[in-house]
Amino acid sequence: MAVLSDLDWHIGRKGLSLLVPPVWSPGKDGGGGTPPTAPSALTATADGGYQRINLSWTDNSNNEAGFKIERSDGDELGYSQIDTVAAGVVTYEDTGLARGEIYYYKVRAYNGGGDSDYTTSANDTVFDFDDVATLKLLLLSDVGTWQDAGKSTPADDDAEDIYTWEDQSGNGYDVIQATAADRPAVETGLLPGGRRVIHFDGTEFLGNATLANWKFLHDGSDWYGFVLHRIANQSNGVYGLFGTNGTSSASIGAAHFHDDRSSQTRNNRGILQITKGSLGNPIIYMLSWLPAGGWTISTPTYDNGNAGDDGNLRLLDVLQAGSGDSINTPHSAANPTYGLDIGAAGNGALILAGHMAAVVLYQATPSAADTTKIVQCLADYYGMAVPFDNGANATTRIQNDSDYDIQCFAVVADDGDVIEVFRRGTQHDVETAGKISKAVWNGATWTQSDIVDSASYDDRNAAGGIASTGTILLFYGRYDVGGGAWFDMRCMRSTNDGDTFTDIGTAMSDRSQTVFSPYGPLVELPSGKLMQTFYGNDGTNYLIWVSFSDDDGATWGNEVNISSSAALFHTECAAAYVSGATDGAAKIILVARFNNSFMAQYSSSNGGATWASDGLIPFSQGSGTDTQPWLYKYGDHIILVYADRTDKQIKFSARRIDSTITDVSAWQAPVPLVPMDGNTTTIAEFGSPAVIEYGGQLEYLYNDGSSAHPSDPDILYSW
Q1: Neighbours of 14 (CB within 10 A)
Q2: Rounded Cα gap, residues 710 and 683, in angstroms
Q3: Residue 530's beta-bridge partner residues?
Q4: How far is it, in rounded angstroms, from Cα 604 to Cα 611?
Q5: Which of 45, 519, 534, 618 has its CA 20 to 30 A from that of 63?
Q6: Which fold has domain 396-406+428-435+467-484+521-717?
Q7: Are 260 and 238 in contact (CB under 8 A)?
Q8: Where are the domains of the chain?
Q9: Alpha carbon of 204 to those of 177, 180, 640: distances in Å?
Q10: CATH topology of 5-127 equal to that of 134-382?
Q11: Would you say 329 and 302 are in contact if contact means Cβ atoms under 8 Å apart?
Q12: What is the CATH number of domain 5-127?
């Protein structure tokens, strides 16, 4: 196993709940002079396998001040304390671990009277690249860059030219550049974690000239690749990432490149071209892209005999096959025409103008789960956000009926079921049949039932989420059909994993509004205080609000008007807790649809008591396009998912939680998740995306707006 000590680093992170514990200090007594009872049932689980291990244990005492977490690397001979968590916290996430290493853990409780006994130890092994499939090439920009052929002088500082980029797979497939003028250079300061990358200026590339090493790319073998890169100047051009054929159909080989030509049907995409020379025309595949903080992880793939989506290859989309060619037929058993270029498409063609951080090639096909591990491992190491498997576009319907199914949210209940809550009716406008329903996913099937079904009211616009206690909160707006007016925003509460919901009444104390519509996810502050966003009409303006609960969602009130009383038009809105150890210091970001055209950001640095207007998000398009934002905190990032009505796509962006909270420019450029299913006109019910964390990664749901369902939209999901 290739274990790279140069890549080791460690960052401690407090437990998985949103509760941020206070720091214990000597003399603080968690229960008097008697040491607490020892915790038990410690488990250690590599979280998806990518450079982190999750711990959980059972709390057996009622007088602890907290828990001490100890770790030993590689064996059980060297335990040392790495962190503490507060009383009642029974989870911990240990991050920044070395790939391929085994880690052992013990936990004990403490208070003013001393420490408890330890738990029994638990361990797990962190994922490494060669844990899956057959690793052929592993190039990482932060290790193995040299200024010479003998690999004696490191290239690890800005502007130092690279003669050799050393293969870390163990195969010895180094890529080199003997010509001084054609050598790429090291560049630092571009990545959040400070790791160096390699800069290609449009005339520079590296290569491995041993032809037999790269035959697997075109001979019909299954293979999978990952390339982490950034194009410096996307201006109607084509940029090579790696290749052995120079993209010539007269050559034998394969090439992966970025095609940004506006003349192409699907421009700004990655392409894999496999050529057979005299044996046939090129085969071209469309590749999906995974966004990573302004960079891209592309995934060139060839799966002989399974060129469609077979469940394992979630990132492959066939775009074009040459005349008379078969995508299931091996191409050529001959060696490639050229050796492998990195930063070009082969034979020095289509040289990259941009940056590269990693190239990983497998001669085999990793499973979908392993693919996620590989992508997340790269993202964790380089400090980027790669939350979605972008190739797994949501195409499966939860409902497929004549109902008007829209405006959903979803939670993962403590029993593991996914609870999707949505509005079910007959039309977009006010109606007498509006209901609030749920669909429960047990890992195999959806089961649908109604939660709110009143003959007197039109109930719609579901929002909410799940608290760290396991309580599920559902908010909805209520319209009095007989009276012809909106009159309430109500809340339903479940304490049994969504099996049943109890109506707790109104979620507002301020009754001055004339329209009420909840939107966005439930937010939890460090103390457990809950917050829900909604919008309302005061008779003149549409304004955005938050409502609070101090008792696990049993009662709601103390609304705060976020937008001013000026003549503004705010509707759908969503908020996310960013950071802060106490409610009074909690930072919260809120994004709202503004003037029916843009997305505006608001922020609070005191737990939602007061709010600042930060301005418009830079990539908002206007003209009624960017709507229905949804926010989710995911590791070190805040994820924004929204509907772009102009491009007819669900898109997402991300920003780091350590960025200046008021800085709207911290949002990364948006990336599409799913198109509008071929529809040529925008309809009202395309969009309303919602996000959950399920199966080790983020997944999303949204309202279908396709031409096949213009009057009876359904809700689709991505896993």
Answers
A1: 17
A2: 7
A3: 524, 549
A4: 5
A5: 45
A6: Neuraminidase (2.120.10)
A7: yes
A8: 5-127, 134-382, 396-406+428-435+467-484+521-717
A9: 9, 9, 36
A10: no
A11: no
A12: 2.60.40.10
Q: Phi and psi at residue 603, in whole multiples of 5°?
A: -145, 155
pLDDT at 478: 85
3-state secondary structure of 617: coil
Where does the pLDDT of residue 123 fall: very low under 50, low under 70, confident under 90, or very high at 90 and above? very high
pLDDT at 359: 96
- The 3 state secondary structure assigned to 477-494 is EEEECCCCEEEEEEEEEE
Q: Which CATH number fits domain 134-382: 2.60.120.200, 2.170.190.11, 1.10.1040.10, 3.40.190.10?
A: 2.60.120.200
Q: How far is CA 55 from CA 20, 92, 105, 277, in A?
A: 16, 5, 8, 54
Q: Give the Cβ contact number of residue 27 at 10 Å.
A: 6
* Distance (Å, whole) CA 7 – CA 96: 9
Query: Pick from 245, 224, 232, 223: which is nearest to 204 by CA?
Result: 232
Phi, psi values for residue 142, rounded to 5°: -95, 5
CB contact at 8 A, 535 and 600: no
Burial class (CB in 10 A: 0-12, 13-18, 19+), 212: exposed
Cβ count near 42 (within 10 Å): 20
pTM for this prediction: 0.61
Tokens of 453: 């079904």
Instruction: In whole angstroms, give the CA distance from residue 137 to residue 281.
Output: 27
Question: Residue 520: CB partners within 8 Å, gap ≥ 6?
Answer: 463, 532, 533, 572, 573, 574, 575, 629, 630, 631
Residue with tokens 């195409």: 395
Span of 4-13, 598-607, 694-703 with lowest mean pLDDT: 4-13
The residue type found at 265 is T
Q: What is the pLDDT of residues 2-47, one digit of tens each?
A: 222 222 222 232 233 233 333 333 334 454 589 999 999 999 988 6
Residue type, 448: Q
Q: Looking up tokens 């309303």, which residue turns up? A: 688
Number of residues that make up the chain: 719
Phi and psi dihedrals of 371, rounded to 5? -60, -45
Q: Give the integer Cα–Cα distance in Å for 45 and 283.
A: 42
3-class DSSP assignment, residue 369: helix
The stretches of 236-392 forming alpha helices (DSSP H) are 368-382
As a whole number of angstroms, the distance between CA 649 and CA 452 comes to 31
Query: How far is it, in rounded angstroms, from Cα 330 to Cα 300?
Result: 17
CA proximity to 295, closest of 143, 156, 144, 191:
191
The half-sphere exposure of 669 on its side-chain side, counting CA atoms within 13 A, is 7
Q: Enumerate the β-bridge partners of residue 227.
A: 298, 359
Q: Quick one: which of 663, 666, 685, 665 has its CA closest to 676?
A: 685
Of 463, 660, 418, 423, nearest in space to 574 by CA: 463
Amino acid at 191: L
Number of H helices, E strands in the chain: 1, 52
Name residues whose C-beta falls within 8 Å of residue 281's C-beta, 6 or more positions apart in sequence.
249, 275, 322, 323, 324, 325
User: How many of the other CB atoms lie within 10 Å of CB of 29?
Assistant: 11
Q: What is the pLDDT of residues 292-348, one digit of tens each?
A: 545 777 777 766 654 333 323 333 333 333 433 444 454 788 999 999 999 999 999
- CA–CA separation, 529 vs 469, rounded Å? 11
Work out whether strand 301-302 and strand 185-187 pair parallel, antiparallel, or are unpaired.
unpaired
Compute how many other C-beta atoms are within 10 angstroms of the C-beta atom of residue 397. 16
